[in-house]
Amino acid sequence: MQGIASIDRQKHQQGISMKFGIIVFPGSNCDRDMQWVAQGILKQPTRMVWHEDSDLSDIDIVVVPGGFSYGDYLRCGAIARFSPAMKSTVEHAKASKPVLGICNGFQILTEAGLLPGALVRNANLHFVCDRVPLTVERNDLIWTKNYSQGQTITIPVAHGEGRYHADDDQLKRLEDNNQVVFRYSKGENGDSANPNGSCNDIAGICNEQGNVMGMMPHPERASDAVTGSTDGLALFEGLVKTLVAA
Amino acid sequence: MTQYQAKIYVTLRPSVLDPAGTAVETGLQHLGHDGIEGVRIGKYVELKLAAENEDAAKQKLDQVCDQLLANPVIENYRFELAAA
Q1: Residue A51 annotated in active site
Q2: Is the dihedral of CA A144, A149, A153, A157 positive or negative?
Q3: Quick one: DSSP state of residue B66?
Q4: How many Cα neighbours within 13 Å face the side chain of A130?
Q5: For residue range A64-88, what is the model confidence (pLDDT) as tens digits?
Q6: Are B9 and B42 contacting, i.e. CB atoms less than 8 angstroms apart?
Q7: pLDDT (tens digit, 9 = 90+) per residue, A50-64?
Q8: Which of A139, A161, A234, B13 could lock onto A144 through a cystine, CB 3.0 to 4.6 A?
Q9: Rounded CA separation A226/A178 (Å)
Q10: What share of chain A is helix, strand, coil (3-state, %, to 5)?
Q11: Inter-chain CB proximity B19 and A166 less than 8 Å
Q12: For A162-178, what is each residue's pLDDT tens digit?
């Protein structure tokens, strides 16, 4: 991957693998789902990183999971952003290493300034808990290598504040730079599956370099066949495969 | 050092849709209150702070609002300051 730091392969010499670090805040509730995918399904070394822990030096891939960090007081992700683990996550991202934010994790990454824009109250005020079709906008990222461009995948969403908002200039920059990774799909009749009123049907974006991605839908909840779908597993499998090969 | 009392108002930027405000506006109309429009819901924060003088207190409040109390991507803020 262009621009993505090559992972220190020496420490993975015995059986090449990628170490996941999953940040755990008070109020996180998707951390163990993510752990199951990383450790249980993908058989990758995985460490749960308590929010007070600032050492991420052993971690290749940082995942900021879903939930309600610190009760989402003030604004979603506003307080989590100042935790020691997040300060190290920002350093991790600045070193061009992979950072994935899912749902509340996406909100935290925008609050931390790692991704542009903000997530606000769903336009219809409802908490949406559903499976939605997403269109993969680009497959040249570490996150989407296992998908094809334009592919439609079905991934669960569960959020009350998932409406992506950015001003017109910022939206134009996102589109011009191809930073939209996933969009809520449009059906054959032209109706959008957009469940929350997001600008430009945005479901997930990356930073300019592509090493940081945030998305409201939950790929970790569509990775084990027992949950009804494995459309999300390709994201994690592709990620590990791409990084190992880098 | 002087003790100050601050009242901080955080509001959504005009360009950001406020569905909760719209819902309240509709509710008011259903109650028969005519002529009400432009309902926007924001946040109100009170805090006490110690500072050398009013300018220093204002500077401190700007920092606090920019860093945490408001998200400049979606929100504006203003505050009132009085010696406590």
Answers
A1: no
A2: positive
A3: I
A4: 13
A5: 999 999 999 999 999 999 999 999 9
A6: yes
A7: 999 999 999 999 999
A8: A139
A9: 34
A10: 30, 25, 45
A11: no
A12: 999 999 999 999 999 99
Q: Name every residue in A having a CB less than 8 A away from some CB of B.
A: 74-75, 78-79, 82, 110-111, 116-118, 120-125, 163, 165-167, 197
The reply to whether residue A118 touches residue B17, judged by beta carbons under 8 angstroms, is no
All residues of chain B having their beta carbon less than 8 Å from the beta carbon of residue A75 are 71
Evaluate whether B23 touches B83 at the Cβ level (below 8 Å): no
d(CA B15, CA A46): 42
Model confidence pLDDT, tens digit, residues A141-157? 999 999 999 999 999 99
Residue A150's H or E segment, with its range, is none
Q: What is the mean pLDDT of chain A?
A: 93
The predicted complex's ipTM stands at: 0.86
Domain ranges in chain B are 2-83
**B23 contacts A125? CB cut-off 8 A:** yes
Residue of B73, B75, B76, B77 to mutate, interface with A, max A Cβ within 10 Å: B73
Measured between CB atoms, which of B19, B69, B73 is closest to A121? Answer: B19
Residues A184-215, buried b or exposed e (16+ Cβ, 10 A)?
bbeeeeeeebbbbbbbbbbbbbbbeebbbbbb
User: What is the rounded CA–CA span in Å between residue A145 and residue A241?
Assistant: 9
Given the structure tokens 């702070």, which residue do they identify? B49
CATH match for B2-83 among 3.40.50.170, 3.90.550.10, 3.30.1280.10, 1.10.645.10: 3.30.1280.10
d(CA A186, CA A192): 4
- Alpha-carbon distances, residue B47 vs A56, A136, B59, B65, B78 (angstroms): 35, 46, 15, 12, 14
| Rounded alpha-carbon distances, angstroms, from residue A236 to A33, A65, A178, A210 | 13, 14, 21, 15
**Of A221, A220, A230, A234, the residue nearest A139 (C-alpha):** A234
- Beta-bridged to residue B15, according to DSSP, are none
